[in-house]
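Methods — Computational structure assignment.
A single polypeptide chain was analysed. Its primary sequence is given first, followed by the predicted tertiary structure written as structure tokens.
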Amino acid sequence: MQSVVENMRKTKVGYSRSEITPQGTSRMAGFDLRKALSVGVLDPLYITVLFLEDLEGGQLIVCSYDLLGVDSQFCELVRKEITNRCVISDSDILISATHTHSAPGNIFSNKDIYDIEYVNFLIETTIVTVEKAIANASFSIPYMKTTNVRNLACIRTEGPGQDFIMRTNLLVLEREEDKVVLCLLQCHPTILDENNLFLSRDLIGSCEKFLDNKYQYIFLNGACGDISTRYTRNESNIAELNRLGSILANDINEAIKNTEVVVDLHLRTVKRSLFLSGAKGLSDEKRKELIALLEEKIENCEENGLKREYQSRLAVLKRPNYGKRSGRNICISVTDAGAFIIVGLPLELNSLQGKKYEELLRKISKKTTWIACYTGGYDGYLPSGRPLDFQSNYEDIAAIYQENAQIEVRECIIDCVNELMI
């Protein structure tokens, strides 16, 4: 075993983190129902960078922001600055967000609250953090582990009483001086609801308080479009944040102690631009009918989780720009890491979509697949493919692309994987 492990000590790993919490108050992203400005900071927000380099010189930089999302324009600016100042290819840069709903919303270029000063601060902070991660890179032994977390999350469209198991993928990179852990979870980090006015990493920030502090952590979020703590949290407060964060942390801590699978990393990434047509949405007449129906359901609904689902649908239908959804290009990336594949999508996939993609790509590549959503942009939900009607869930009503987008995205991913397998 010792000779195998020594042969695996080929991947260089660098890690760095910088704070990106804005000064003063800001409009917060994530909830249509929240209108007030932030009033303080519950826990700091960060940009975390992981740098990987294999024996042949293949590289990957992962930038993870504690934000709701990172729009495509922001990603382009960051990639441009990184390639200008660091020796790395544009395609080898993954820019992602953890999807906290308690972060500023002023980085989205299509919003009237867009703050170029804060965006420039984020970009400059990112470059400094990337440079530090590259500078402190050292050789490591990579391990893989998956942990199944119970009692933390649920499929929010299926109601209370579920025995849902949330899978969390871990890549543990053991250096002589420490361990760096890349965590891909699958959960909306929304223990804090629209009444919260404090900036926070939410679930991930709470989780890190209970993680082994000998290690360094970076988080990505997966196919969690319909996965949240809606039916597992008792309240939306700090006590529940700590309770649920400790559940996730305890499972990760235990998994790290028992990592067994030693892997060899070989890094190669393919990127594609894909045009998706905009959704037409409901007609004005059906929209008005559905708004009236939802208002009636909300008034008569006694189950809080279901009432929240109705309120979310209603908030989307009342958006001033509902129905004004033009098509756009999205960026899809697929990284062959040797032992596994990372698919980077600027979309929110539901759990079933994610599972189908993973199974399909495993058949093609014979490798484990990680689906990293909120990566390379932020373009909302990937529609399920079902026509919109009065029974449509929040995710389909909020989706900005036509029903066939799921097929087009799938075919694009398959093309990328096939190219990498040549």
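Note: The radius of gyration is 21 Å.
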